[in-house]
Specification:
InterPro entries: ABC_Transporter_SBP (IPR050902), ABC_transptr_periplasmic_BD (IPR002491). This is Iron complex transport system substrate-binding protein. There is one protein chain. The chain starts with a helix and ends in a 5-residue tail after the last strand. Helix 8 packs antiparallel against helix 9, helix 9 runs parallel beside helix 15 and helix 15 runs antiparallel to helix 16. The chain has 366 residues and is α/β, with parallel strands linked by helices. It has 2 domains: 126 residues, Rossmann fold; 165 residues, Rossmann fold (3-Layer(aba) Sandwich), CATH 3.40.50. Strands 8, 9, 10, 11, 12, 14 and 16 form a 7-stranded mixed β-sheet that branches. Strands 5-4-3-6-7 form a 5-stranded parallel β-sheet. A two-stranded antiparallel ribbon has the order 1-2. Strand 8 and strand 9 form a beta hairpin.
Length: 366
């Protein structure tokens, strides 16, 4: 090959447009409709909620390497999943804490010289949250709000794609978003074809014999009841749910009862989620439904009681909850759908840190 030909080829290569990918400055629209411009690829991110590390870990092989500081809510509420991250990425143990998942300490956050802050929608939609955003931006830190806990059926794939763009992991994000949408659509198509009402369902958060009760409405993980063709007895409540009385629970007398909780029974007799064995989850569910306001329900008498990890309402693996609920509500329609198989595929194809434990359980052994 002559020098002249080599020079021509080099000229043509340099003249070609750059390969497709994220270009900076990058402007994105976040979960609450704000346009945010990132001047360069973020390499020092503040996480307003530690649970958003789970979302990052589905599309990035080392999400901890991108963090400048984070909130302690995942570590405090679900120490088992934190330990799995610490084993895989020891650097997480040295990350500065900037808050508790509700409020952010600007005193802790601002000295970290971050180039991006990711806040959860529940933080951004409060007056203190709006003030925090304004102060971070005045300090030169762009703020992007993400939402994995409301309108999850549409928000989850949308927000994964948003993260993929921000982190320059669009191919990985698109793969997970497409995977999520296909699994949800499979449930939706079968329910739509059947066109008959499913069972009446009560979804209660953190059941406790000493107090009653918080019922999920039609938002968040409550949306999976309607997706599976069920009827939510708390449908008239605010979207994300509300406190109800024991009289409400007894009067609703659902066909199926589902409780949510976290590992270790910190807030409820029920223990379910990361690091929990199948035996512990089942035994604790049996103890939880022995509460006076639950024991007389038809669902309890007939053994149609189940448990879910409560923090499915904060992380984009909530499609596992959708599949579990579908199996519980209409087992004859969804006999071939197995959330355990879906979890195994997520661990194999996407998760930087495998999800281990019992994230759903039931029925309670008698």
């Amino acid at each position: 090959m002559t020098r002249r030909l080599i020079a021509i080829l080099l000229f043509l290569l340099l003249a070609l447009p750059a390969a497709a990918g994220v270009r900076y400055p990058l402007t994105v629209t976040d979960a609450i409709g704000r346009e945010v411009t990132l001047p360069a690829p973020p390499k020092a991110i503040l996480l307003g909620s530690g649970f958003n590390l789970v979302a990052m870990s589905l599309i990035h092989p080392d999400p901890v390497s991108l963090l400048a500081g984070w909130a302690g809510d995942m570590k405090d509420d679900n120490p088992e999943i934190y330990e799995r991250f610490r084993e895989r990425f020891p650097a997480i143990g040295k990350l500065p804490l900037i808050g508790d998942g509700v409020a952010i300490s600007l005193e802790a956050a601002l000295p970290l010289k971050a180039d991006l802050a990711l806040l959860a929608n529940w933080q951004a939609e409060t007056e203190p949250g709006r003030q925090t955003i304004a102060m971070l931006e005045r300090a030169g830190v762009p703020v992007v709000v993400v939402n994995f806990n409301t309108e999850v059926l549409t928000r989850t794939p949308e927000q994964i794609r948003l993260l993929g763009k921000i982190l320059d992991r669009e191919e990985q994000a698109e793969a997970y978003a497409t995977f999520y949408e296909a699994h949800v659509q499979r449930i939706r198509d079968r329910v739509s074809a059947r066109k008959q009402p499913g069972p009446r369902v009560l979804l209660e958060a953190f059941p406790n014999p000493d107090q009653c009760c918080y019922a999920y409405g039609e938002g968040g993980i409550g949306s999976f009841i309607a997706l599976a063709g069920g009827q939510n007895v708390a449908a008239g409540l605010p979207s994300q749910g509300a406190v109800v009385s024991s009289e409400f629970v007894l009067a609703s007398d659902p066909d199926v009862y589902i409780a949510t909780a976290s590992p270790g029974g910190r807030y409820s007799p029920l223990s379910v989620g990361p690091g929990v064995s199948a035996e512990e989850a089942q035994d604790s569910l049996k103890a939880a439904v022995a509460s006076p306001h639950l024991a007389g329900l038809r669902a309890v008498r007939e053994g149609r009681v189940h448990g879910l990890w409560n923090f499915f309402n904060a992380v984009p693996v909530n499609l596992l909850a959708a599949e579990a609920v579908a199996r519980w509500l209409q087992p004859e329609l969804f006999a071939d759908i197995d959330p355990a198989e879906t979890l195994a595929e997520i661990n194999r194809r996407f998760a930087a840190v495998p999800f281990e434990g019992s994230y759903w359980t039931g029925p309670a052994p008698r």
